[in-house]
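A further point concerns the way the authors explain their paired sequence and structure data. The central task, working out the structure tokens from the amino acid sequence alone, is never made concrete. I therefore recommend that a typical entry be quoted early in the introduction. An entry of this sort, consisting of the sequence and the corresponding backbone structure tokens, reads as follows:
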Amino acid sequence: RDSVSLFEYTLATLGNDPCRADIHWRLGRAYAQQQKLDEAVKQYHLTLAIESRVSAHYFAAHYLLAQALQAQGKFDEALDQYSQVLRQQPEAEVHAKMAELLAERGRSQEAIAHYREALRLQPGLWPVLNNLAWILATDPTNRDGHAAVQLAEQACVITCQREALVMGTLAAAYAEAGRFAEAVTMAEKAALLAEQAHQPELAARNRKLIELYRAGKPYHE
């Protein structure tokens, strides 16, 4: 069902049995699909209040609630929800989401740990490889150019060098490792690919970084 029909179906079902956690969970998803995040959060909280035992809906509700709270900018609350999921379901996707949020909060060292655990659980996740490589190439206090190059090169292989974001990360990794000629070449390729993919902001960022790499300087956030 699409979001509208699911929304209507869920409302109708709740009229018959308002204490079913799975129905509140579906209603939360319907609200989230319609970008009604306040309503979605309420429904996820109801799901968790009703469904206190271990179940698929229980953990899915924590995960979806975390995503909704993150979208609202309630980062500490979102982190708490992700943490509750990880206690019972330590899956790669959840570790990756946790790492992403921690990185946004400037907690890079914790983010690195979660990204590495995600890769341990599921090697070859190119967005995780890319994000971890970016931190190790650009973070002020957790840089490791050699490791960043290895991760970014692996992500480029997996994506067949068709993702401008990944190629830009590899350029930053090369620069951090002191391989500036390669950094310039890769950043040029990333900018061109971004333009072809109609990603003007990404193209502009890479072209700006080219000048930095030509000057023999790595990019640090």
In short: The chain has a mean pLDDT of 84. The radius of gyration is 21 Å. The chain has twelve helices and no strands.
